[in-house]
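Q: For a teaching handout, I want to show students what a protein-ligand complex looks like in token form. Below are the inputs, and the small molecule is ribulose-5-phosphate. Please produce the holo structure.
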Amino acid sequence: MKQFSIAKPMANDQEKEAAARASLRFVKDGQVVGLGTGSTAAYFIQLLGEQVKKGLRVRGIPTSVRSGELASSLGIPLTTLDECQEIDVTVDGADEVDPELRLIKGGGGALLREKIVASATKYYVIITDATKRVPVLGKFPLPVEVIKFAQAVVRKKIEALGAEVELRRGVDGNPYLTDENNYILDCRFGQIPDAGKLARQLSDMPGVVEHGLFIGMASVVLVAGGSEIVELRRAE
Ligand code: 5RP
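A: Here is the structure, written as tokens, with ribulose-5-phosphate included.
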């Protein structure tokens, strides 16, 4: 398993598991299910595995090598985007969620596959503990996946937008490599007042493969806090 260090708030594992459990009701027999990445999504995959053992028939599309390995170890049948381009429901975690259900994702390094899977998903369910809810995105460093060749140029451009930028490294000190063999720049903006504008600016930079702003994608966000699950939906 790939390891890297990034400062993450201590979160309550019981809350993560509760949010994951609450998301199970969105998964129906016969569906194709996107499998997110990260510690909260791992709870979902484990719980889904239990349902599969009890007879639920689903096919999973993992958003990372490690989620695929976990799902396989639990007996969840897998498929691919080559075989199936429409995903019924995806359940994934997030690093930050704002009141408009805009997300920062990619703390776990899987934002590219996560966004591709999300883009092919009819119903996108985000599961989090309460620490991830913020009034304005940006406290969590925004992950931006870049091709290696472009990293210095992209870094300079993002710094010019006002962020402190750090190349993500693994615990061995070497640059962290994504499942697609790219680098990740962790970009500290402090606050992102206009996430849509920043998303466009980043997408317009040659060498940026994808960024961790997920805007207009989440269908529902399940936030576990204490013994409560709060269900957030976007205003239509
Ligand atoms: C991985 C992600 C994760 O969903 C995000 O980092 C949240 O992870 P965790 O549930 O471990 O807090 O975007 O790329």
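A: Two things your students might notice: The first strand starts at residue 32 and ends at 35. DSSP finds six helices and 13 strands in the chain.
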